[in-house]
């Protein structure tokens, strides 16, 4: 399916000339790493002992009864740090060490990827520098503090809009200048080849476990699997294992304040083709190719593009992409809290919201939702938007 980092016509290596040798070196090293039994064992060790894998595939008995389906959650919210992100940062940090690099750099928007990188760097004893827009730093003070506690250096970016896209530019500049000892740790299935493949491979552990677990529990594959899509890493991680099967796969994007407004992050649903951050993919852009601002109540979905492999899977009709808005997401968040005693991340609540719509039409079916993260980080947002949670 994949040739030279392309997924159909999507993906590729649209990087500054000076970085191409480093990307090719990374591609070679990753293939070696994957074929190395000792390296694989070490990754398995950290995933189980440090990250807490494997995660449960949990049957929501109350929701299942109510909807007349069997609704399972893949509990990535129980991974150390509270989300699937550590699967990837541990994998890439070990790859970096395997390549002889001593320093990790990353960029972060809301801070979640920065925290997961800091965790991996601390446990492996590597130097970590995180680029973060100064506007984002002011908005996410606690996350900045968390990164610092784990020994990461957080570098404020004061150029442009002082947010994620400026942080990405600075991280790229750093990598070009320090490529000898530095590894650029990308946070989702985005960027130039080989990053979309590397991140997918490190997140595939989600799908491998899910497949074994559902066969154990149900004796058959599920009817539907849903996952939220920001850059698309948790979705690729769970979907990939089921691409060849008769299983309906649904990626859920953020419709924000509505697909008919400018305030959404639905790149697969409404984006147009173009190059962003090193890959040919779908982007939220205007007629002049200017990136449009994106919005979601879930910070992790607030990104104006999507991983190229998703666009390919959409084009060939293998995966459906839909969008759920902020209000529907908050409804689903509350449902899971009250009915099942689980606080989902607002990102994951997008997938759950659409899963409940599917459940209404799918009598007696088996549905799996990838619960990509826990919602403790989101309670203030929910309280603010719904008002009542702290009053009762
Ligand atoms: C970062 C994040 C996402 C979005 O990233 P993907 O690469 O699309 O998976 C989704 N859920 C949670 C909990 C996150 O922290």
From TrEMBL:
<keyword id="KW-0028">Amino-acid biosynthesis</keyword>
<dbReference type="InterPro" id="IPR006654">
    <property type="entry name" value="Trp_synth_beta"/>
</dbReference>
<feature type="domain" description="Tryptophan synthase beta chain-like PALP">
    <location>
        <begin position="51"/>
        <end position="373"/>
    </location>
</feature>
<keyword id="KW-0822">Tryptophan biosynthesis</keyword>
<comment type="similarity">
    <text>Belongs to the TrpB family.</text>
</comment>
<dbReference type="InterPro" id="IPR006653">
    <property type="entry name" value="Trp_synth_b_CS"/>
</dbReference>
<dbReference type="GO" id="GO:0005737">
    <property type="term" value="C:cytoplasm"/>
</dbReference>
<dbReference type="GO" id="GO:0004834">
    <property type="term" value="F:tryptophan synthase activity"/>
</dbReference>
<keyword id="KW-0456">Lyase</keyword>
<dbReference type="InterPro" id="IPR023026">
    <property type="entry name" value="Trp_synth_beta/beta-like"/>
</dbReference>
<dbReference type="InterPro" id="IPR036052">
    <property type="entry name" value="TrpB-like_PALP_sf"/>
</dbReference>
<comment type="subunit">
    <text>Tetramer of two alpha and two beta chains.</text>
</comment>
<feature type="modified residue" description="N6-(pyridoxal phosphate)lysine">
    <location>
        <position position="85"/>
    </location>
</feature>
<comment type="pathway">
    <text>Amino-acid biosynthesis; L-tryptophan biosynthesis; L-tryptophan from chorismate: step 5/5.</text>
</comment>
<keyword id="KW-0057">Aromatic amino acid biosynthesis</keyword>
<dbReference type="InterPro" id="IPR001926">
    <property type="entry name" value="TrpB-like_PALP"/>
</dbReference>
<protein>
    <recommendedName>
        <fullName>Tryptophan synthase beta chain</fullName>
        <ecNumber>4.2.1.20</ecNumber>
    </recommendedName>
</protein>
<comment type="function">
    <text>The beta subunit is responsible for the synthesis of L-tryptophan from indole and L-serine.</text>
</comment>
<dbReference type="Pfam" id="PF00291">
    <property type="entry name" value="PALP"/>
</dbReference>
<keyword id="KW-0663">Pyridoxal phosphate</keyword>
């Amino acid at each position: 399916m994949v040739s030279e980092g392309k997924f159909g016509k999507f993906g590729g290596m649209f990087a500054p000339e000076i970085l191409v040798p480093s990307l090719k070196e990374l591609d070679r090293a990753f293939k070696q790493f994957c074929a190395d039994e000792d390296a694989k064992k070490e990754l398995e060790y950290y995933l189980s002992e440090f990250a807490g894998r494997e995660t449960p595939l949990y049957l929501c008995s109350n929701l299942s009864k109510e909807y007349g389906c069997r609704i399972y959650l893949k509990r990535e919210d129980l991974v150390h740090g509270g989300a699937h992100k550590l699967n990837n940062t541990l994998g890439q940090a070990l790859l970096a060490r395997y390549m002889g690099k001593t320093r990790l750099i990353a960029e972060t928007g809301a801070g979640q990827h920065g925290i997961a990188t800091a965790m991996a760097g601390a446990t492996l004893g590597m130097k970590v520098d995180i680029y973060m827009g100064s506007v984002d730093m002011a908005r996410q003070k606690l996350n900045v503090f968390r990164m610092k506690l784990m020994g990461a250096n957080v570098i404020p970016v004061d150029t442009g809009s002082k947010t994620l896209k400026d942080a990405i530019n600075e991280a790229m500049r750093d990598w070009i200048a320090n490529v000898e000892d530095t590894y650029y740790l990308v946070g989702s299935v985005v960027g130039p080849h080989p990053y979309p493949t590397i991140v997918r491979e490190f997140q595939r552990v989600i799908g491998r476990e899910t497949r074994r677990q559902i066969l154990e529990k149900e004796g058959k594959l599920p009817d539907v699997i849903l996952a939220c899509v920001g850059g698309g890493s948790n979705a690729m991680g769970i979907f990939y294992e089921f691409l060849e099967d008769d299983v309906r796969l649904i990626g859920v994007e953020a419709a924000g304040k509505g697909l008919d407004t400018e305030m959404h992050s639905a790149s697969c649903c409404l984006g147009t083709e173009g190059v962003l951050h090193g890959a040919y993919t779908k982007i939220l852009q205007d007629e002049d190719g200017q990136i449009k601002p994106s919005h979601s109540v879930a910070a992790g979905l607030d990104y104006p593009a999507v991983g190229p492999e998703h666009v390919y899977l959409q084009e060939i009709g293998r995966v459906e992409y839909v969008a759920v808005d902020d209000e529907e997401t908050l409804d689903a968040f509350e449902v899971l809290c009250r009915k099942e005693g689980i606080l989902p991340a607002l990102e994951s609540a997008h997938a759950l919201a659409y899963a409940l719509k599917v459940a209404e039409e799918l009598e007696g079916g088996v549905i799996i939702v990838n619960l990509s993260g826990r919602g403790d980080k989101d309670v203030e947002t929910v309280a603010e938007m719904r008002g009542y949670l702290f009053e009762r």
